[in-house]
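Q: Given only this backbone (86 positions), what sequence would you predict?
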């Protein structure tokens, strides 16, 4: 299965690539379902590889979308090739 769910708080700490800009959870404001979260390409080998495939902006290597569970808990759904929970 290529989709896995991770908590929004864990996913939100990301870098913006070459500029090394960081957006921390406290600075991002409250998340809402449907918002997209981008992970910087400088955060790991997999994200660098994905960014290299891009024909445009190479600062980003991963993306997820905020969703709400039945109880209202916010999580992020994203495609991944790793084992569940990684």
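A: Predicted residues:
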């Amino acid at each position: 299965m290529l989709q896995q769910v991770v908590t929004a708080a864990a996913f939100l700490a990301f870098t913006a690539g070459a500029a090394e800009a960081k957006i921390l959870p406290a600075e991002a404001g409250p998340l809402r379902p449907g918002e997209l979260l981008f992970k910087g390409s400088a955060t790991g080998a997999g994200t660098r590889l994905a960014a290299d495939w891009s024909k445009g902006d190479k600062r980003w290597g991963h993306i997820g979308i905020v969703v709400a569970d039945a109880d209202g808990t916010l999580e992020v759904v994203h495609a991944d090739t790793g084992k569940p929970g990684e």
